[in-house]
Amino acid sequence: MPANDPRTAAALLIAMAGLAACGQNTPKVDMPPREKCYGVAPAFQNDCATRAESSCAGTATTDRAPDRWQYVGKGECAGLGGTLEPRVAQADEEDA
Q1: pLDDT of residue 40
Q2: pLDDT confidence of residue 94
Q3: Does residue 1 carry a pLDDT above 70?
Q4: Minimal CA–CA distance to 82: which of 55, 29, 44, 46?
Q5: What is the C-alpha separation between 32 and 39, in angstroms, rounded?
Q6: In this predicted structure, what is the pLDDT of residue 41?
Q7: How far apart are the C-alpha atoms of 27 and 16, rounded to whole Å?
Q8: CA 96 to CA 40: how far, in whole Å?
């Protein structure tokens, strides 16, 4: 259909109305308090950010990397063996 076809305009208006209606009916979900917990994320499941290496979620290549964090429930971090502050990853012995 050409861009100036009335059917194209009607289809576009219907799609836009549908999108607008979806946003209005979304219930608000109250999330429980969470905190960043460093050193607990399984490989490729970190939520985001490291100091120098990456700023993207899912980029941790090792389990429990000390400079990668994952959101956990508030107060659960220490019980999982993590810390609330990043730790510097230890270099391999070969690199020393």
Answers
A1: 95
A2: 42
A3: no
A4: 46
A5: 21
A6: 93
A7: 20
A8: 25
Q: Which residue has better confidence, 76 or 21?
A: 76
Rounded CA separation 84/76 (Å): 10
Higher pLDDT, 58 or 52: 58
* Contact indicator for 36, 49 with CB cutoff of 8 Å: no
Enclosing H/E stretch for 70? strand 69-73
Both tokens assigned to 53: 């290496």
What's the token pair of residue 61? 């290549």
Q: Any idea what DSSP says for residue 35?
A: E
**Cβ-based neighbours of 7, under 8 Å, separated by 6 or more:** 1
By C-alpha distance, which of 29, 52, 41, 46 is closest to 81? 41
Please, which residues have CB within 8 angstroms of residue 90's CB and are 6 or more apart in sequence?
66
From the list 79, 10, 12, 82, the residue with the least C-alpha distance to 42 is 82
pLDDT band at 63 (very low <50, low <70, confident <90, very high): very high
- Which is it for the CA torsion 86, 92, 95, 96, positive or negative? positive
